[in-house]
C-alpha cells in the first residue's frame, strides 16, 4: 500500500514536477508478466525516478547498506526502502551473489517486474562499466525478457557526494525487450552468462550514449579510493 501512496500521491507527482522527465520507449515495458528492467546507475535519484514513471510496480534489489545504517537517519532510510518494497542485497562475496539471485527469482516467480543495475554499484564518473552476470543468471533461469533502460542526466543532477539533487530535466529511455530463449538450458555455462550480460550492457550503452569501460566499477572505485581517499565517498 505504501508503495502506491509514494508513487501516486507523495513522491511520484513531485518528481515529475521538479525534473519533468522525458520518457522514451515506455511501451516496451510489458503490461503484465515477469520481466527484468536492467539499467545504468548514475545517481541515488535513479532509485526514485524510474519507478515513478513506470505504470506497474517494480521491485529493486537494493544494497544492504541502505537497510543497516546507524542512528535515526539509518532507521528512517531502512523503513523507507522496506515500505517501498525494495529487497536488501549483501554485495560481499560469491554466496551473497547467489542469495541476491534467489531473491530476484522470487520476484520474477510471482510474475512481477524486477529492477536491477548490472554494474552492481553507481558509476562514480558517469561512464558505463562492465556488467555482472547475475542479471543473465536470473533472465535465463526465469526465462523472462530483459528491458534495457538508460538514465540520462541523473549524474549531472546528483553526482556522488551530493545530497540534494539539482533541479534539471532528465531523460529515461527504454529499449525493446531482449529475448534470450536461444540460450535455454545454458544458465550454468559461464560463456553464456557472459554473452547475455554483454548483450544487455551493449543495449544500455546504445540508449545512454555513455563511454564504456570494460572493467567492473567496484574495482576501479577501490583503486581510485586508495590513490585519492577523499575523492570518492
Automatic annotation (TrEMBL):
Keywords: Acyltransferase, Transferase
SMART domains named in the record: PlsC (SM00563)
InterPro entries: Plipid/glycerol_acylTrfase
Superkingdom of source: Bacteria
CDD domains xref list: LPLAT_AGPAT-like (cd07989)
GO function term, MF aspect, one: acyltransferase activity
Keyword Nucleotide-binding: no
Domain Phospholipid/glycerol acyltransferase, chain residue ranges per copy: 35-154
Keyword Lipid metabolism belongs to the record: no
Protein's UniProt name: 1-acyl-sn-glycerol-3-phosphate acyltransferase
Native species: Streptomyces chryseus
Amino acid at each position: 500500500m505504501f508503495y502506491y501512496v509514494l508513487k501516486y500521491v507523495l513522491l511520484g507527482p513531485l518528481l515529475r514536477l521538479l525534473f519533468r522527465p522525458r520518457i522514451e520507449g515506455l511501451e516496451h515495458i510489458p503490461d503484465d508478466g515477469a520481466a527484468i528492467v536492467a539499467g545504468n546507475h548514475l545517481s541515488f535519484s535513479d532509485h526514485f525516478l524510474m519507478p515513478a514513471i513506470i505504470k506497474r510496480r517494480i521491485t529493486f534489489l537494493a544494497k544492504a547498506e541502505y537497510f543497516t545504517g546507524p542512528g535515526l537517519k539509518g532507521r528512517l532510510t531502512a523503513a523507507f526502502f522496506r515500505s517501498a518494497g525494495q529487497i536488501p542485497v549483501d554485495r560481499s562475496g560469491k554466496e551473497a551473489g547467489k542469495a541476491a539471485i534467489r531473491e530476484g527469482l522470487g520476484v520474477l516467480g510471482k510474475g512481477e517486474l524486477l529492477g536491477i543495475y548490472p554494474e552492481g554499484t553507481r558509476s562514480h564518473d558517469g561512464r558505463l562499466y562492465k556488467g555482472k552476470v547475475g542479471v543473465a543468471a536470473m533472465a535465463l533461469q526465469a526465462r523472462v525478457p530483459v528491458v534495457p533502460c538508460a538514465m540520462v542526466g541523473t549524474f549531472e543532477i546528483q553526482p556522488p557526494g551530493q545530497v540534494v539533487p539539482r533541479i534539471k530535466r532528465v531523460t529515461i529511455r527504454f529499449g525493446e525487450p531482449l529475448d534470450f530463449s536461444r540460450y535455454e538450458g545454458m544458465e550454468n555455462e559461464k560463456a553464456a552468462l557472459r554473452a547475455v550480460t554483454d548483450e544487455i550492457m551493449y543495449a544500455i550503452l546504445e540508449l545512454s550514449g555513455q563511454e564504456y569501460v570494460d572493467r567492473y566499477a567496484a574495482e576501479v572505485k577501490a583503486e581510485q579510493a586508495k590513490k585519492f581517499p577523499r575523492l570518492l565517498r
